[in-house]
Design brief:
Blueprint: E1 15-16, E2 22-23, E3 27-29, H1 45-56, E4 61-68, H2 88-98, E5 104-110, E6 125-126, E7 142-143, H3 146-165, E8 170-175, H4 180-185, H5 200-203, H6 205-218, E9 223-229, H7 240-250, E10 257-261, H8 269-272, H9 277-281, H10 287-294, E11 301-304, H11 310-318, E12 324-327, H12 329-333, H13 337-343, H14 360-379, H15 390-410
Parallel strand pairs: 3-4, 3-12, 4-5, 5-8, 6-7, 8-9, 9-10, 10-11, 11-12
Antiparallel strand pairs: 1-2
Helix pairs in contact: 1-2, 1-14, 3-6, 14-15
Bound molecules: flavin mononucleotide.
């Protein structure tokens, strides 16, 4: 048996968030878009089964995959949408499953902005009319009007209110990975010259107003988390300096948790940490940045991306770089990994390895679709299939998403 020193026990230490919520340990199931809603975008029994499995897996906090706040604007086919109380019973069942084993559970609320596939959404809107630069797959967006921006802030708040009414412990605002809020933050995608753009203060205003509206909607003691990019990893884009500026402003707001990630569809560092020297030196991608964040804010930190070994996770928490460890892809392959990590942090390691198909432009999407295939197996009550080929995953997902987009357009 491995000897348990105070340092190796650190992953099992509870954490009290500023609003009072208590997480039973330091391991977090990070958001993974499930695409398991029904055709009306309501949660399904498959989602209940999947989150029941993760709940039993031992993490202290489960964050759902991104849930859209507006059915006119989807990130992917079969996203869950929460814009009013029409699906409250199904949301309640989902929350109950996720919380069954004592974990807290929060809903990640999102709007894709320009990151919506061509033909998928009724409307493609963004801070400015700047299309995603990865071929013709993405819709050409139009710029939002001032009135529409205010309407979207209200929608984030309403989605949060309904999520909490359904029994979730709070929400995470998705301000990372190049989606709408992240588009407002970036000088490459926000070319506005009104009160929503033009300088860093005005670019961050949308996030701050969403944060305040969401807090007002959920009350003082529910969890309000924000997922933010350390940087977009693009020349001329959102930098670490601007990210620290945003965090200094968020520090004045009642935020419970700040999740650090990075990258966008155009530069997907979230899956490999980009190419920086620090990422190669350390197991997790954004730890050096997290250490800089510590001197900017007292908001508890969650770092997600690249964590694979109990030793690496223990070092990151015991060393003070982060309070919580986010795990995404490893939990698609081993949903009970958190329990194993808590039992033997010194010897446990994720079996997940990056899945590639040898075509650089498609590798990160291959990895994502391979992972999503494993989620769908878990949701169907099956075991993960480590031998599944990433090329097969790409072909199957293209077929599936293409069919779902066509069905949606036909109103089927
Ligand atoms: C299938 C899949 C879906 C994802 N969906 C989301 C999402 O909805 N929201 C989000 O913030 N991140 C999403 N991510 C990114 C993860 O939360 C995480 O940041 C990334 O996978 C790096 O963590 P890991 O190395 O532990 O996998 C997704 C990742 C995968 C593989």
């Amino acid at each position: 048996m491995t000897a348990t020193t105070p340092d190796t026990a650190v992953l099992g230490t509870p954490l009290t968030l500023p609003g009072g919520a208590v997480l039973k340990n330091r391991l977090v199931k990070a958001a993974m878009s499930e695409q398991l809603a029904d055709r009306a975008h309501a949660p399904t029994p498959q989602l209940e089964r999947l989150y029941g499995t993760w709940a039993r897996g031992g993490a202290g906090l489960l964050i759902t995959g991104n849930v859209m706040i507006d059915r006119r604007s989807l990130g992917e086919p079969l996203n869950v949408v929460v814009e009013d109380e029409r699906d409250l019973p199904a949301l309640r069942r989902w929350a109950t499953a996720a919380k069954a084993a004592g974990a807290a559970a929060i809903v990640q609320i999102n709007h894709p902005g320009r990151q919506t596939l061509a033909g998928l959404s009724e409307r493609a809107v963004a801070p400015s009319a700047v299309q995603v630069d990865v071929g013709p797959a993405f819709a050409k967006p139009r710029a939002l009007t001032g009135a529409e921006i205010h309407e979207l802030i209200a929608r984030f708040a309403e989605a949060a209110r309904v999520s909490v009414a359904a029994g979730f412990d709070g929400v995470e605002i998705h301000a990372a990975h190049g989606y709408l809020i992240s588009q407002f933050l970036s000088p490459l995608t926000n070319l506005r010259a009104d009160e929503w753009g033009g300088d860093p203060e005005r670019r961050r205003r949308f996030l701050l107003e969403v944060t305040r509206a969401v807090r007002a909607a959920i009350g003082p003691d529910r969890i309000l988390a924000i997922k933010l990019n350390s940087a977009d990893f693009q020349r001329g884009g959102f930098t670490e300096e601007e990210s620290l500026g945003v965090i200094a402003e968020l520090d004045k707001e009642p935020v419970d948790l700040l999740e650090i990630s990075g990258g966008t569809y155009e530069s997907p560092a979230l899956y490999d940490g980009g190419t920086s020297e620090s990422t190669r030196r350390r197991e997790a991608f954004f730890l050096d940045f997290a250490e800089r964040v510590r001197s900017t804010t007292t908001i508890p930190l969650l770092v997600t991306g690249g964590f694979r070994s109990g030793a690496g996770m223990t070092d990151a928490v015991a060393g003070g770089a982060t309070d919580l460890v986010g795990l995404a892809r490893p939990l698609a392959l081993q949903p009970d990994l958190p329990a194993a990590l808590l039992r033997s942090p010194g010897t446990t390691r994720s079996a997940f390895e990056l899945k590639t198909i040898g075509i650089k432009k498609l590798d990160s999407i291959a990895d994502l679709w391979w992972t999503q295939h494993q989620l769908h197996r878990l949701a169907a009550g099956k075991q993960p299939d480590p031998g599944y080929g990433p090329r097969r995953a790409v072909l199957a997902a293209l077929r599936r998403d293409g069919t779902n987009i066509l069905k949606r357009r036909r109103g089927a």
